[in-house]
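Posting this for the archive.
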Amino acid sequence: MTRAAAFGLLLWVAALAPALSGQPGTRTVWDGVYTEEQAKRGEALYMTRCVHCHGTTLGGAVDGAAALTGATFNGNWNGVSLDLMLDRVRTTMPVDNPATLSRQQTADLLAFVFNANKFPPGRTELPRQAEMLALIQFKATR
């Protein structure tokens, strides 16, 4: 085995380590998994596509729309990986026209919701790719 091949193999194993360990992810929403700019894009989208049901404070409003902040929201999603969270939102929302948001739009909306829930922003945007989101968990508390 050449040095380059050995180095490549080492990088590949390091990249797969979280998946190989059986852990669903080593990062959580407390680790700065979105940016403030992404949350702003999500807020603009929220105001056009979501606010009429979930309200301006994300507290829920029309026809039993769930709150997107607080203890019930955190309890419903606690321990769920973000790939499942994104897919659930993308395929069911908005309720009057489901599955019309792109994966990027849904990631931006999640960034806005995380920001509203006081999860800290970071330097890297929340990804839209399922395999990357699977390595991040929603944790209600640190």
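DSSP finds seven helices and two strands in the chain. Strands lie at 27-28, 136-137.
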